[in-house]
Amino acid sequence: MSTTTAAAAAKMTSTTAVAISLVLSSCVVANAFRQKKQFYPSVVYICKSNPSMAIMYMQALVAVYLIGKLTGKLFFGSLRPAESERLIEKAWYAVTETCLAFTIFKDDLSPKFVALFTLLLFLKCFHWLAEDRVDYMERTPVISYIFHLRIWLLLVILTLGDVYFVHDAYTTTMAKGPSVQLVFGFEYALLITLAANAAFKYVLHAVDVHSDTFWESKAVLLLYLEFFIGLCKAVMYVVFLIIMVRTYTIPLFAFRPMYHTLRNFKKVFQDLVLSRRAIHNMNTLYPDATLQDLQAIENVCIICREDMTAAAAKKLPCNHIFHTSCLRSWFQRHQTCPTCRLDILRPTPLTTQNSNVPRPITPTPGRTAQETPSTEAAASSSATDNSRGPSTSNPTHVSSNQAGSSGSSYYNQTPLQYQFRPYTFQQRSTSVDEINGNNSENSNNGIPESNNMNESWIAFMNAAGIGGGIGPSSLFNDMPQTSTNLPSTNIPQIPLNLPFVGGIAIQPPNIPPNLDTLSDEELRLMEQNTRQGCLARIKYITDIKCMLDAAVVMMNQYSSACLMAGLDSTDSTFNSETKTSDTTENDEQLETRPPSNISSETDSSTGSGVTSSSSGSEDQLIQEETEQQRIIRLKRLEKFGSNST
Amino acid sequence: MAGSALRRLMAEYKQLTLNPPEGIIAGPTTEENYFEWEALITGPEGTCFEGGVFPAKLIFPSDYPLSPPKMSFTCDMFHPNIYSDGRVCISILHAPGDDPMGYESSNERWSPVQSVEKILLSVISMLAEPNDESGANVDAAKMWREDREGFNKVAETLVRKTLGIPTSK
Ligand SMILES: [Zn+2]
Ligand SMILES: [Zn+2]
């Protein structure tokens, strides 16, 4: 009987059930009075007759249901469809799980137990509804005073009730030993966390609603709240499990919610740790967007669709710009760029296990052009109009603007920055189109984006240090690509820079990683004849090359410093010499040439012509070897590129 | 100050009303609650769903656009990527990392870059080209693969139903 009533109630087709039960119970009462004529005897009569009792129980349930509806109306007004849907779903789970609990506590089954259980379910429903209502605060533009009053009252009453029942369960368990009160105590303890969660959320939302500006740290606070509530719940479940296993048996009925709680807690914990790292990266590494950046794009943050100001926006390594606050809340969910999904925590993945980071860039520009960034692919596949999606049109705008602006201010830059151009962050970014855009732009102008590059280089060095899990070799993920487009941009710069560099500290290059620190697995991976392994090996080679390049640069600096200090007379001739020769050579030769000049310089006091030419030819020999090696290297890379297509 | 989710939904609603894409009408059910939308989607031309007008509802989470909305058709649908209760199963509606089917790449997943408009356009292209690897409706997927004629017939009755035209026999 009771189950049919409950089911009917759950289906919200309850008015008939209520009416039927009312009629039935009044019949029972009338019948008893007709037979016994007096109050007491008729009560005894009803209690002794099983059918009458059943009807009375049903009537009690109906009464509870009606009271529930009434109080619900009082505290919540009318429920929204989504709310009642969720409520029924959750109540259904609660009922089935408690039926499972019955199997353990068969002996305790009594009317009192059923009553307690009904009350528990009742209070649970109110907790869920309170949670829903508090969440609803974020969704509606108007919140009335009556709403605040209701929530306040409800939360206070619920918390007091929970505390009372926990206390009750504790005292009875202590006095009479373990009983079904254990489960009730545990359930009410869980409900306390629920109520606390709702209360804290309510406070946060209320403060947010009343403040006029956007409250940035709210999202962070919410995440912390979720974490602590999750922690409390997880601890409770574990304690409950231990107690239950020791006193009764394994509480199967608690497994589903326990699994959910633990999984949620794990996820929140992960989110917390990762988002903290991502936000730290963002705050320390990524530059604020400049006005030019903002003008280049449509000035709309793609996360919130609102305008950005330069102070409140950040530029990610992939050149995508968002509000700092928007990024902060997004990083709590996923630590990727919203537009191109660049992984913020590890800009250059060495391993392919992490499937949600796009593949490393392939060396030949012809091939890379075919690869479209992920979101664009998605957008086009879903038949979106590309004209309106800012994500598709932005990157090229950004890059062209930067190239232009930094180009004009190039001559004001500190010299020598170009040397590190090949190793900068941008070429490691995943948005291939941008890179191609940049590079083609550069080769057209013959002017690099020195400023931008230098910034990202610093950012990149820091990222390598902070990011922890990033293997140093991953820094030079895309080295091969740079060798294809270097020459045109770099050559004219060295002679311009050389005379002025004395005393300027240059950025240290990346030190090739200590191979001892690699794990066995990583080493095995490198040994493999796969694309991955080979790329990793090439990375090490390029690391070493970078070191050598840096050494050459240092030598250049040293020699130019010498020139400026002591050998003024030969200075101009030296410069013109290098200028003319260098412009005709490519960058590889450029690196080895300066030492020959140094030697010629030092010997210039005596018969300089002979010595310089001889050392030059030696250099040429070495140069040819390395050139050959380089060709082989490039060929192999090209092979990989064509293989993977 | 109103929540960022609310403001973004208002912005999207404005955008959709000022500049409606072809074949789509969408907006909040009531002005008080911007987190529940109704949408009308017309069946793409040249497909078996051509001519139909399919009502659907979208439920947005309070942290939208960080999390995707849920979408379900409120009319009868028979399609490999739509559950029998109307829920739509396409990758744009799933956040990266939560993968009910296990085959989707993260590229097509939800991110704040997506919008209601993009979702609805994706649904239209889904109507045009079902992904029969998805197991949302196994019967429909099987029929789509093996008995295209039959599938088209079922689709036609659905279209007629949404338009209120009795099925011709
Ligand atoms: Zn924003
Ligand atoms: Zn990006």
Automatic annotation (TrEMBL), chain A:
<keyword id="KW-0833">Ubl conjugation pathway</keyword>
<dbReference type="GO" id="GO:0061630">
    <property type="term" value="F:ubiquitin protein ligase activity"/>
</dbReference>
<keyword id="KW-0479">Metal-binding</keyword>
<feature type="transmembrane region" description="Helical">
    <location>
        <begin position="113"/>
        <end position="130"/>
    </location>
</feature>
<feature type="domain" description="RING-type">
    <location>
        <begin position="301"/>
        <end position="341"/>
    </location>
</feature>
<feature type="compositionally biased region" description="Low complexity">
    <location>
        <begin position="368"/>
        <end position="384"/>
    </location>
</feature>
<dbReference type="InterPro" id="IPR057992">
    <property type="entry name" value="TPR_SYVN1_N"/>
</dbReference>
<comment type="similarity">
    <text>Belongs to the HRD1 family.</text>
</comment>
<dbReference type="Pfam" id="PF25563">
    <property type="entry name" value="TPR_SYVN1_N"/>
</dbReference>
<feature type="region of interest" description="Disordered">
    <location>
        <begin position="348"/>
        <end position="411"/>
    </location>
</feature>
<feature type="transmembrane region" description="Helical">
    <location>
        <begin position="180"/>
        <end position="200"/>
    </location>
</feature>
<keyword id="KW-0256">Endoplasmic reticulum</keyword>
<keyword id="KW-0862">Zinc</keyword>
<feature type="transmembrane region" description="Helical">
    <location>
        <begin position="12"/>
        <end position="33"/>
    </location>
</feature>
<keyword id="KW-0472">Membrane</keyword>
<protein>
    <recommendedName>
        <fullName>RING-type E3 ubiquitin transferase</fullName>
        <ecNumber>2.3.2.27</ecNumber>
    </recommendedName>
</protein>
<comment type="pathway">
    <text>Protein modification; protein ubiquitination.</text>
</comment>
<feature type="transmembrane region" description="Helical">
    <location>
        <begin position="221"/>
        <end position="245"/>
    </location>
</feature>
<dbReference type="GO" id="GO:0043161">
    <property type="term" value="P:proteasome-mediated ubiquitin-dependent protein catabolic process"/>
</dbReference>
<dbReference type="InterPro" id="IPR050731">
    <property type="entry name" value="HRD1_E3_ubiq-ligases"/>
</dbReference>
<dbReference type="InterPro" id="IPR013083">
    <property type="entry name" value="Znf_RING/FYVE/PHD"/>
</dbReference>
<keyword id="KW-0863">Zinc-finger</keyword>
From TrEMBL, chain B:
<dbReference type="Pfam" id="PF00179">
    <property type="entry name" value="UQ_con"/>
</dbReference>
<keyword id="KW-0833">Ubl conjugation pathway</keyword>
<dbReference type="InterPro" id="IPR023313">
    <property type="entry name" value="UBQ-conjugating_AS"/>
</dbReference>
<dbReference type="GO" id="GO:0036503">
    <property type="term" value="P:ERAD pathway"/>
</dbReference>
<dbReference type="GO" id="GO:0061631">
    <property type="term" value="F:ubiquitin conjugating enzyme activity"/>
</dbReference>
<dbReference type="InterPro" id="IPR016135">
    <property type="entry name" value="UBQ-conjugating_enzyme/RWD"/>
</dbReference>
<protein>
    <recommendedName>
        <fullName>Ubiquitin-conjugating enzyme E2 G2</fullName>
        <ecNumber>2.3.2.23</ecNumber>
    </recommendedName>
</protein>
<dbReference type="GO" id="GO:0005524">
    <property type="term" value="F:ATP binding"/>
</dbReference>
<keyword id="KW-0067">ATP-binding</keyword>
<keyword id="KW-0547">Nucleotide-binding</keyword>
<comment type="function">
    <text>Accepts ubiquitin from the E1 complex and catalyzes its covalent attachment to other proteins. In vitro catalyzes 'Lys-48'-linked polyubiquitination. Involved in endoplasmic reticulum-associated degradation (ERAD). Required for sterol-induced ubiquitination of 3-hydroxy-3-methylglutaryl coenzyme A reductase and its subsequent proteasomal degradation.</text>
</comment>
<feature type="active site" description="Glycyl thioester intermediate">
    <location>
        <position position="89"/>
    </location>
</feature>
<comment type="subunit">
    <text>Interacts with AUP1 (via C-terminus); the interaction recruits UBE2G2 to lipid droplets. Interacts with ubiquitin ligases AMFR/gp78 and RNF139/TRC8; recruitment to lipid droplets by AUP1 facilitates interaction of UBE2G2 with AMFR and RNF139, leading to sterol-induced ubiquitination of 3-hydroxy-3-methylglutaryl coenzyme A reductase and its subsequent proteasomal degradation.</text>
</comment>
<feature type="domain" description="UBC core">
    <location>
        <begin position="4"/>
        <end position="164"/>
    </location>
</feature>
<dbReference type="InterPro" id="IPR000608">
    <property type="entry name" value="UBC"/>
</dbReference>
<comment type="similarity">
    <text>Belongs to the ubiquitin-conjugating enzyme family.</text>
</comment>
<dbReference type="InterPro" id="IPR050113">
    <property type="entry name" value="Ub_conjugating_enzyme"/>
</dbReference>
<keyword id="KW-0808">Transferase</keyword>
